[in-house]
Design goal:
Elements lengths: L2 H32 L6 H8 L3 H7 L3 H8 L4 H10 L7 H16 L2 H10 L3 H25 L6 H24 L6 H15 L1
Helix pairs in contact: 1-2, 1-4, 5-6, 5-8, 6-9, 6-10, 8-9, 9-10
């Protein structure tokens, strides 16, 4: 393959990524301004400077735009980050510290805007539960890898469930707060309440 072909493919791929990001950002901005239900795919395409047909090359639904931004990378990073936690931590401490690492690394203002959009309608809130269930299942499966004793499975399942509850409360506290503290602080506070109760 000649260098000119490689250069052209590199340019094409870069333009594709730039357009993908532009469409995703435009969609997110329109959802925040107009509301999710009131924003059409055609409006996103027009505001992005592309045709509706081109839009479908990047996203098939409005939901895919939200999924693009929702906790980008967190779902895939849960297991390796949890497995890398020191062995002297309890399961709950390991999950807490995993979440703190992940929110520091992955959550930003765009993720928080997506969180607000997901909480703007009952339909979207139901869809958001799928994300939490996915994370909870990953946490449980990974905890079982770290502590494979069958007699611990009920405890590990409960740990995964309450940890996701603490995560959700932290996100809710951040969403409802007028301050702009780092999400990790809300997470630490939420887990501190949980650990105190236990």
């Amino acid at each position: 393959m000649c260098s000119e072909t490689i250069r052209r493919e590199g340019l094409r791929e870069r333009k594709r990524r730039e357009t993908l990001l532009r469409v995703a950002e435009t969609g997110l901005n329109l959802f925040a301004e107009r509301g999710y239900d009131a924003t059409t795919l055609e409006a996103i395409a027009e505001a992005s400077g592309i045709s509706p047909r081109t839009f479908f090359y990047y996203f098939k639904t409005k939901d895919e735009i939200l999924q693009f931004w929702q906790g980008t990378g967190i779902a895939d990073a849960v297991a390796p980050t949890l497995l890398a936690q020191p062995w002297d931590k309890s399961p709950l401490q390991a999950v807490r510290d995993t979440f703190i690492v992940l929110v520091t690394r992955y959550l930003n203002e765009k993720s928080l805007a997506v969180d607000r959009i997901y909480n703007s309608s009952a339909t979207l809130r139901v869809r958001k539960q799928g994300f939490y269930l996915q994370i909870e299942q990953t946490v449980f499966t990974t905890l079982c890898q770290r502590w494979p004793q069958p007699e611990r499975r009920a405890q590990l399942r409960m740990t995964a469930m309450v940890a996701i509850g603490a995560f959700r409360l932290a996100m809710e506290a951040r969403r409802n707060d007028t301050q702009t503290r780092p999400i990790a602080e809300y997470l630490q506070e939420s887990f501190a309440v949980l650990e105190h109760q236990l």
